[in-house]
Design a protein that fits this description.
With 290 residues, this protein is α+β, with helices and mostly antiparallel strands. It contains eleven helices and seven strands. The protein is elongated.
Length: 290
């Protein structure tokens, strides 16, 4: 017996009557073909939703390039402090951070700034460090190196602009600042010549040679030859000591005397020879060597 809401109905010969009195066979209920013949359709659902018939909105990608708020806030605070108080209100590592913001826009750069300062000693040495040594620091890529070298070039260009085409005697301090900025933190010796006209105005500044950590080759004949090519009347020799100590060696003194003798033959004036150390410079004229 089957029981329904309308009470029991007797099954007769493989068929039964519904509550409404309709005769339905088991074949009709259980066989799809029988259902079709009786006017019923099988509403089978597709495995995948047809395109354009989705019930849910398309998920939006997560903003993977968004700077974390704590980093963005830190950068904002540093910029505000710099604009309000200048470089004097910030230690070296924070100034370096400000510079690295441009190179690495999506990361916290404080650890790298501290690592660079630990590796090279101070901000000047970081900016003037040779490219191979910068490449050896973990986290330093091409963008960082390019920006550091760009900053170095801009600083040198600005200092050079203060002395070029200016009378040397009236801009001596600016000249010393330029020499220090350009050469004080180099790891190898560099020899430069400042060429002056008859009014002692700086008309050219050229690097003549690069050497090792404690020697740079200088040829007096090439020095005076270049002075004549530039129609210079006087010159100042400049080289650096990577050791940091600007005390002249005997080789420095001998070379300077040779250049001076060559200049005298051609009626050129050797005004001075400057040796640039890490924190100070020595003038041959002031020390009595010329």
């Amino acid at each position: 017996m089957l029981h329904g809401l309308e009470g029991p109905r007797r099954i007769t010969g493989g068929a039964f009557f519904t509550a409404a009195g309709v005769n339905v066979s088991f074949t009709t209920l259980c066989h799809p073909a029988g259902m079709k013949r009786s006017g019923f359709q099988d509403g089978t659902l597709p495995l995948f939703t047809p395109a354009g018939d989705e019930d849910e909105a398309t998920p939006a990608p997560l903003p993977v390039d968004r700077l974390p708020s704590y980093i963005a806030d830190h950068r904002k605070r540093l910029r505000e402090r710099f604009m309000a108080g200048g470089s004097g209100a910030m230690p070296d590592y924070e100034l370096l951070e400000l510079l690295l913001f441009r190179s690495i826009p999506r990361q916290d750069v404080k650890p790298l700034a501290r690592l660079l300062l630990d590796s090279f000693g101070d901000l000047n040495r970081v900016i003037t460090a040779p490219v191979p040594r910068l490449q050896a620091v973990k986290g330093v890529g091409d963008a960082v190196i390019c920006d550091l070298k760009l900053f170095e070039a801009v600083a040198q260009r600005m200092m050079r602009a203060r002395v070029m085409h200016q009378p040397v005697l009236s801009s001596w301090d600016a000249l010393l600042d330029y020499c220090h900025t350009t050469m004080a933190h180099r790891e190898t010796e560099q020899f430069r010549i400042l060429f002056l006209d008859r009014k002692n105005t700086l008309i050219a500044d050229e690097e003549q040679a690069r050497g090792t950590v404690d020697h740079v080759p200088v040829y007096p004949r090439e020095v005076v030859k270049r002075a004549l090519e530039l129609n210079a009347s006087a010159l100042i020799l400049v080289h650096n000591h990577p050791s940091g100590d600007p005390t002249p060696s005997q080789a420095d003194i001998s070379m300077t005397i040779q250049v001076q003798e060559a200049c005298q033959v051609l009626n050129l004036t050797l005004h001075d020879h400057l040796i640039v150390g890490k924190s100070r410079e020595i003038s041959f004229r002031a020390q009595g060597y010329l």
